[in-house]
Amino acid sequence: MRVMVRAQPRPLAAGHDTFTTAPGGTLARSLATPWRLNLAATAYEEPHPDTLAYVREPDHLLTLASPSAVRDHLLARYLPAAAHQHPTRPDRYRPDQTHHWLAALAAHLATTAPAASTASSTDIVLHQLWPMAGPRRVRTADTLLAALLAPVFATLILSRVSIGFSPRQLFGASGGVLLALGTVWQASRPFVPEPQTLQLQRLRSPTHRRQLARTTTSALAFGLAFVLVLGFANVLVLVGWLGLGLRLGLAERLKDAPLTDPRNPVRDDLAFGLAAGLYWLAGAGRRYLDFLLCVRGRLPWRLGTFLNWSYEAGLLRISGVAYQFRHRELQDWLTTHPTPRQRAPPAALYT
């Protein structure tokens, strides 16, 4: 086996004569853009894990007959090479897993109509991915989960109310039933509101601190009034109203919020909703959790972590609150190549 050690010139230098003597040739035309040069550099600078020698020579590029053949050759090797060269966690995900998962996302984007709602054919937005698992399937799972949890919350809230038919007791029971029905209705809707992001920097502003104090005080006052009307003390009621006050004071609509980590909107939405026991408020975050349950096997459970890892590996980029494939050519190629090529063992990489 021939190896090329790091002390020698970079592998792509081997094709320098071809670029000079045939500037209009197949290889020169195939590598005429920065993206294609990046593909070649990444694919041919992959080191052997034991010897640190380059695992493949670029001479094979000279045998390819057309620019499309060069493109497919480089794209097939780009993803595993980029995964192995990840700057911090090269072994966190196997190249074949990475290929399957990114190909599934690319296939979903290929079927997304750009004119529909806020959908995009290039943006991977976590809280907008749920139709990928089947809209009806996810909505059904969301509704069933709400139907199971709503009576539990209603029971906990009304656990201190004695059984009877007084106006106060009937009012409390009616409120619990309406809360449960409202939660189920909210979960069954075909659309969910955009998540709201947590803006802790507002606490640095005296104006926003006063606003937060007003909203939390008002929310607690409503909570106390609710408790007094029902005639019982329940900490869940007060916690729920306090959570609502904090949400109103610290949360901001996604389109008005500054650029952030694409994972934060879902995290913040869940934190404000579920942490306060307000299941119906965490619409986008709740639907995202249901989506992960329905898409098991096709995507990793910690999807946000995987996408961020792919961004660090150079497979994705970030645009606002969305991940995007590093280049549209990579997205389109994964759409048509959902299965990774059979990776040759190190001893056969030069054959």
The average pLDDT value, as a whole number, equals 76
Specify the number of helices.
13
Relative helix content: 40-55%
User: Looking at the structure, what is the overall shape?
Assistant: elongated
Total strands = 4
Element-level helix/strand string: HHHHHHHEHHEHHHEEH
Instruction: State the distance separating the first and last CA atoms.
Output: 9 Å
Topology, element by element:
Elements lengths: L15 H6 L4 H5 L3 H11 L22 H18 L10 H16 L24 H23 L9 H22 L7 E3 L7 H25 L4 H16 E3 L10 H10 L9 H12 L8 H10 L3 E4 L2 E4 L2 H9 L15
Antiparallel strand pairs: 1-2, 3-4
Helix pairs in contact: 3-4, 4-5, 5-13, 6-7, 6-11, 8-9, 10-11
Care to describe what's here?
The chain is elongated. Helix 3 crosses helix 4, helix 4 packs across helix 5 (95-110) and helix 5 packs across helix 13 (328-336). The protein has 351 residues and is mainly alpha-helical. A two-stranded antiparallel sheet has the order 1-2. A two-stranded antiparallel sheet has the order 3-4. It is 52% helix and 4% strand. It is built from 13 helices and four strands.
